[in-house]
Write the C-alpha cells for this entry.
Amino acid sequence: MKVAVFGATGLVGTRMIEVLGERKFPVSELIPVASGQSEGKMIGFGGKEWPVISAVEALVKRPELALFSAGADLSKIWAPRFAEAGCRVVDNSACWRMDPNVKLVIPEINGNILDDGDMIIANPNCSTIQMLMALYPLHLSFGLKRIVVSTYQSITGTGKKAVTQLFAERAKNRDGADVRLVDPDADNAYPYPIDLNLFPHIDDFLDNGYTKEEMKMVNETHKIFDDYTIGVTATTVRVPVMGGHSEAVNAEFGKPFKLEEARELISGFKGDTLVDDPSRLQYPMPLFAEGSDEVFVGRIRYDESRPNTLNLWCVSDNLRKGAATNAVQIAELYL
C-alpha cells in the first residue's frame, strides 16, 4: 500500500520508516512528508530513493495509510483531510488522544477495540506506553488501585534540537566552561543547560501545578484501561541520556500477590522483558534499551509501607515502542 510518513526527517519519523522496513510492512510507495526546508530531500527505503514532499502533494497521491509525527498543530489540520480521502491515519501527537471519538491504542493491551470505521487512531504518549506495558499483566490479575510514577525521560523525546544542545554543551564542558551558562546565541531546546543537569519540567505547566506531560499519563491511563477509578499521579523529569525513558513506578493493587507471581506475569507478557537480578547487578538501563522494541522491567519489590503494593523500574526506547513501533503495530492490525 501507499504509506505517507509525516515528519519523515525528524527523530520519530526516521524511526517510523526504519520500523516499516524492519517489520516488512507491505509498502508499495513511500511518501515522506516534511516541512518546506526538507522538501526535495531524498529518503532511502526498500532499495529506492523517495523525495520528501509537502502535505498537499501527499494528499494528491491518495495514500492508504498515513503515520503522523509532525506535531499537534499539523495533525489537527491534515489528519481529518487524509481520513476524509479514505486514508487511515495513526497520529503520534497529543492532538487526538483525548478526543472521545478517537481510540487511543497500545496493540498488546487494547488493540481489539479497533474496527474498520476508525480512520484516525491516536498513538499514546511514550511515557504512558511503557508504564502500561509493564503494569497491564499485573492489572489483569490483581486489579490496579493507584499508580505513583516518576519518570526520567531522554532528551530524544524533545527532538533533534535537544540532542544538538546536549552535545554542544558537553563539548564546551570538556573545555572547562561554566556549566551553568546557556549560550544566548544558540537555538536551544531548553532554557537551562541539560548536560550535567536534569529538570522536573516536561511540556507546559497547568493551573493545578502539574505539567501537560504529567497529566497525559493520568488521562491516557484511564482511557486505555477504560477504568477511571485508578488513582494516578506523576512527576516527569528530563535527564541528559539518549537511549530511552526510565520510570520508577509504585503500584497498589486490590488483591494480594507474591512477587514471583508478578515476575512471571511480566516475563510472560508479549513486549515485556524481565531484567531483575539484583544479586548480579542486572536491572534495566536506557543505554542498553536503545534500538529495542521491548519494555524492560526490573527492581520488582514490595512497598513495605503499604499492603498489596510494589515498586518496579521500567525502561524503553521512547522513539521505538514509545512512538514509531507502536504506530506501525497499530497499522499492522489492519493488514
Remarks:
- The first helix runs from residue 11 to 22.
- The radius of gyration is 20 Å.
- The mean pLDDT is 96.
